[in-house]
Every structure is written in C-alpha cells, then in structure tokens.
Amino acid sequence: MNTSTTLTLGAYNAEAQHPYDLARFWSQITGGDTHPGGDCVYVAPAGPQGFGLFFQPLEGERPARQLAHLDLTVPWGSRESEVERAEALGATVKWHVLDEHPHVQWTTLADPEGNLFCIAEHPPRD
Description:
Blueprint: E1 11-16, H1 19-30, E2 34-37, E3 40-43, E4 52-57, E5 70-74, H2 79-89, E6 92-101, E7 104-110, E8 116-121
Parallel strand pairs: 1-4, 5-8
Antiparallel strand pairs: 2-3, 3-4, 6-7, 7-8
C-alpha cells in the first residue's frame, strides 16, 4: 500500500544545560524567534523553509557520544562566510571536509554546549 505523504521537519528537540542560552545562540544562527515556556524554549522556524528547535533542561549526565546532529545547507560559495558568522556567535570549528565527496563540502562545528552541527554547500548542477 502506497500512501503519499509529504514530511517536513517540525522541530529538532534537544536537551541543554542552559536551554535559554542555547536557544538564543540557535535563534541567531537560524533567524527564528524564541518562545520561552517554563524551563523550555522553542525557536520558531524562520520562514516557510525553516525548521523549529526545542530546548529542554538536560536530564542527567551529558552523553559521552552524540548520536545525531543537524546538517545545515547554504548556497554554494557561502559556506565560509556562514562558518565565520557561526564562530562570531560562539560556535567552534571542529573540522572541514572539502575533498571527500564531489557533491558536497562541509564544516563541522560545535555550538556553545559542544553539540556538533554541520554547515554544508553543494556545487551547482550542470
């Protein structure tokens, strides 16, 4: 049985040591507005192509290994400037992958709490 459904990303949910501070960082990265609610903060999508983020207090110890991360895509030729902007907001560059795959190059960064994320660009198609 084939049912046709279009899935979109509603929100990426994460635990944070400091949900309000981390939401502020991600709000600046994505351009979304923050909406606090108790101990949690929602960062709304910045427009119809955006996605939401939801930060709640960290329960217990921070895991030793991160099991998932965001891959953010920017237009070809703008990755370096977006990486610099992320660094100015408090991110840390971890490594660059520029020649491993012909269809993408990316930089892996860590947000202020150490959560990894990537900023990637894809070359234009001929």
